[in-house]
Each structure stands twice: as structure tokens, then as C-alpha cells.
Amino acid sequence: HNRFILIEETDKNTYSKHVGKLVVEDTQEDAFVKLSGLDWKSTKEDINTLLTDCNVREAVITTNESGKPSGEAFVHLETKADAKKAMAHNREYLRERFVLIEEIYESQYIR
Prior knowledge:
Layout: H1 12-19, E1 31-36, H2 44-50, E2 56-63, E3 69-77, H3 80-87, E4 93-94, E5 97-98, E6 100-104
Antiparallel strand pairs: 1-3, 1-6, 2-3, 4-5
């Protein structure tokens, strides 16, 4: 088998965009999380209820090519402490489904 691995040097921002959030940056005051596995009927109010102990600045429920909910949402939180609180809700149920929550960088946030 003729296999090879290409190794390239990259900067922190490019790496983070492709790999996801691995560490929390101390310089970032705002925080962002991605919710996956949402019921297609979930609303922004449902997200606010799930994250009731967090200071939510904005919640964006994404849609597919047909304009229907994709089952994912991106949430802009006020502080890193809010992101930590949000992560405590990982795998909690919203409607009939459990929601996966992961912390992301602002560059991964979809408006």
C-alpha cells in the first residue's frame, strides 16, 4: 500500500476552526455553544428554558436547504461561566429528545 501522511504547519485559528474547541481561551469574554439533537419543533423559548440558569444573548436554530429546522442550534452566551453552566445541561431532555451541547469558538458560531 502506498499511503502517506501530509503534515502542514497551521495557525491556532485555522486549527480551531477545523478541529473544534479543545481549550477555553482566557481572552474571550463571550462564550458560544452548539446544541445538537434538537426536536424539529424546538423553539428559541425551549432553548432558553433548557439553559434557564445561563445568560443567553442570542439563539439561532439552523435550517436545512428546504428551510426546515436541522436539529441544531447555536447559542451566544454572555460569559465563560455561562458556557460552563450550559455544559452541565449536556444530554438533558428537551421535549422527547436529549440534547448534546458542546462549547465552540466564535468563528464556528452560525448567525
